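Figure 2 data, in text form.
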Amino acid sequence: MKKYITLLLLLVFASCHKENIKDKPRVPTPYYDKAWSFSDKGMVDSSFVYFNKAKEESLKQGDSILVAKSLINMAIISGDQGDYFGSQELSLSAIKYLNISNAKQKEILSSNYNNLGKMAHLLKNYDEATSFYIKAIALSNNEQSKIIYANNIAINLSAQKRYHESLKYFEQLLRNKDVQKSNNNFSRILSNISKTRWLQNPNYNAAPDLLRALHIREKENDLWGQNASFSHLSDYYYKKQPDSALFYSRKMYWVAKEIKSPDDQLQALQKLVKLSHPEETKQYFGLYQKLEDSVQTARNAAKNQFAVIRYETEKNKADNLLLQKDNTEKKYQIIKQKIVSISTIFVLVAASIIAVLWYKKRKQRLELEAQTAIRENQLKTSKKVHDVVANGLYRVMTEIENQEEIDKDRVLDKIEDLYEKSRDISYEEVKFTDQNFHERVSELIKSFATDTTKVALAGNDPQLWKKVTAQVKYEIENILQELMVNMGKHSGASNVAVRFEQKQNKINIYYTDNGIGMPEEMRFNNGLRNTGTRIESIHGEITFDTKVEKGLKIQISFPIT
């Protein structure tokens, strides 16, 4: 599905590019053309750089359509490199540059919503993904595009095990005349519907239609389609006929190498590790580890590079504004000196000019102070949204995901508590109850324990918190929550330990995990910046031990007031 979606988006942008040439004299777009040239060569890093340059140039020229197309292409590249959140952010920022009432721009918007659906699906936000796909269908006038979007909805529903709804979409597509006329579309839908019917009913004989779809794809020399068919057949035969499953896994691995798809190679190697004889399993596992490390390293490097590119662009804008301000101030000083040197005849005029300039400068200063106050208020609100809503929701999601039996009333109580907190998020005063604080800390930390992650807690005694103020407890709770959320999202740790101790008039918190650790020259995200601010507010200190061979050690200390 990933390959088909990306190809569709590229075709949409290529066709829109040609339409501009027909409709009006073409404005030279060297950055945009160069970005496509790098994209055709598979040089995604360079392509991203030049799409970003094309966006900045288009902003200066007031070409909103090219701004949007550049942003969406950057979003596609980010998504293909595994940066799903970055891709979402870029796609969402592109929407404001497009006019929904313009027929040609509708098609670009449609492809953008499809990319948003793809990212939501990969992030397992399935309801959100369906919503985006439906918007894509509503905006598109291209029948081939609609077929792909509907197929994506069906796959998204199948991923949620909503097989009955998924099959309705597939069956409707099979009745579509355009699908029946296209071997590629027909074989894709036929293979997908057969797999879905088998997932719904394990006794369903999916082999005839799966093999029929494969035969069509082999006849059409559709290697991407063959890759999908081999995957479906391997899954189908996994328990029924392991030898057949092994055969199709090998075929999938060969084709995945042929089409240079590392994700499909990894998937095929996973199947081969499970299905092969013991002497071959070790070999396949070694290939899997080597390829996974290589892919992850390349994608992390690309994501970091993309983030740096966007950061440098915004920094350059800020530097240019500061330079303009300095130049304006210098010009003002020159003018002021000239006015002072004018003869006494023009003293009254000069005084009037100076008064006007002073008034404007004062007005600018007041406006700047007002903007600064607004920005500080926005930062405070953003911090509260991150701590109260984002981390709170992640914690609830973690508990739901890792509990076999869910206490519905308890979950609803937590969601209602988040709702009440979010309603008060704009108020300056923090509402916090510090009763049974040690129990709250214990519940918070242990809520991140999963089947794959063990969490140990020590030293969290009621006596420890007796002299700590309610405000400090509030900050400590959010600091601990941020650490645990970051652990759950990024560390990949299997063992986590949090220990508390009091030494004289200080409380020390020791956090340790055996995850992937943290680089020495790390870049703080919003959450860690908020954590640093909170620790400063309670006159505490935080120390990151990045020299350990594996994992991460953090020490937080703060005084008891």
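Caption note: The CA atoms of residues 332 and 357 lie 9 Å apart.
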